[in-house]
Amino acid sequence: MLIVSEETCKEVIGRSDAFKAVESVFAAMSSGDAYNFPVIREAIGHADALYGFKSGFDKAGMVLGVKSGGYWPGNMAKGLTNHQSAVLLFDPDTGRLEAVVGGNYLTAVRTAASSAVSIAHLARKDSKVLGMVGAGHQAGFQLRAAAEQRNFEKVVAWNFHPDMLPGLGKVAEEIGLSFEAVSQEQLGAEADVIVSITSAHEPLMMKDWVKPGTHIACMGTDTAGKQELDPALMVAATVFTDEVAQSITIGETQHAIAAGLIKESDITPLGDVIIKKHAGRTADDEITLFDGTGVGLQDLAVASAAAKLAQKQGKAIEAEF
Ligand code: NAD
Fold first, then answer.
1. Which of 14, 55, 89, 173, by CA, is between 20 and 30 Å from 258?
2. Which atom of ligand 1 is nearest to the CA of 294?
3. What's the topology of domain 122-294?
């Protein structure tokens, strides 16, 4: 059995490994080779914590396992990350535990890889301006991964807490992109690609602010009640997601579905574009929208890649179990 620590995950998994793992598992989901099991998420009635499991099986990649963890809002005061998780991987042939892998860093890279895969497959090739809505922990990971997908020249950003924006500006500077803090309206008017990654519970970007041809990766909404976009955008856009069942219940489309603006059949899994079952973007003035809700199979895919790389590089702890 392997133990792969948080630090080791950071050493062995880069953005391109995460991109490949997430793209492959989205394809496997659309081919019927991989499926997510029902998600459990409960308030435990202690420390204000939310705790749960995300699990699944990828028959194509032979990855079986579970990510367990959640959100402890008091952790920051203790010098710890609020989101805490670990992944257990099991041998699909025998059920034996194969690896315990740190899940915190991997959650950030797999979430960034998810929006990056959507940009790679759906954004206009000539996209020049990247719009960032949000500037929290995930935003830097999102910015770095998104920036690699097109020849961006500039980042425009808005955040509910403006004091957090200089931190994101530093990330843009590190990767050689100019950075400007703007209003939401200006962001919509300038951006060719928009990534939203906030914990908002109301629309931050309205339909009329977004220009034709934009690709939006909506990544923050992963719980019932959260919301980042005007539901009217779901009608204006061609809508994609990681998993339809999750999108309509805990993802961004929950609001447009509840309002009767769109139907479940209006939402296409991104994997269908990857395996060429769906054409994806078909016009330069089309708005494409990816609702990235975060599925367990993404976690398992990157954790499996981390375990393999760590073992190969002699960085995993081997333990009898
Ligand atoms: P964070 O706490 O570090 O940052 C929160 C962000 O939301 C900041 O930009 C903050 O200014 C903004 N925000 C807070 N309250 C707001 C409000 N009322 N209105 C608008 N913006 C507000 O969190 P994070 O780790 O960066 O995560 C951001 C979001 O992404 C969370 O909702 C988290 O649950 C979600 N998330 C999604 C996935 C996925 O797979 N889709 C994975 C990880 C995290």
1. 55
2. 40
3. Rossmann fold (3.40.50)
Q: What is the pLDDT of residues 157-181, one digit of tens each?
A: 999 999 999 999 999 999 999 999 9
Structure tokens at 302: 């990157």
Query: What is the 38 CA–ligand 1 centroid distance (Å)?
Result: 23
Per-residue pLDDT tens for 107-131?
999 999 999 999 999 999 999 999 9
71 DSSP β-pair partners = 50, 83
The hierarchical CATH code for the domain 2-107+297-318 is 3.30.1780.10
CA of 48 to the centre of ligand 1 (A): 17
Strand-pair category, 97-102 with 2-4: parallel
State if residue 159 touches ligand 1 by the CB under 6 angstroms criterion.
Answer: yes
- Which residues carry out catalysis? 67
Per-residue pLDDT at 317: 98
The whole-model pTM stands at 0.97
Closest ligand 1 atom to 228 CA: 20
